[in-house]
Amino acid sequence: MSSLVIHDVDEEIVGALGNLAEQNGTSPEIEHRRILEAALKPAEPQKKCFIEFLDSMPNIRKDEDFERIN
Asked: Chloroplast: is it a keyword of this entry (predicted)?
């Protein structure tokens, strides 16, 4: 893994990062890593269940338009 050093960060941002870490019981470094990952990692595509997929299809025909084979 690589390291990342950031210079000239506003004290308000540093304080907010420390407060967030304290609230979550972690370190500022862990919170910084989480923020970067959330902002930069591509989101996993949301999978739909079969019914949601069918519901998303446009309704362009009527049942009577199709021949029923018994």
From this structure: no
pLDDT tens figures, 51-64: 888 888 888 877 77
Look up the domain containing 19 and give its range: 11-65
CB atoms within 10 A of CB 17: 17
Residue 33 lies in a domain: yes
Tens of pLDDT, residue by residue over 38-50, are: 999 988 888 888 9
Kindly state whether residue 46 falls inside one of the protein's structural domains. yes
Number of domains into which the chain is organized: 1
3-state helix, strand, coil in the chain (%, to 5): 55, 0, 45
Residue 32 CB contacts under 8 Å (≥ 6 apart), including other chains: 17
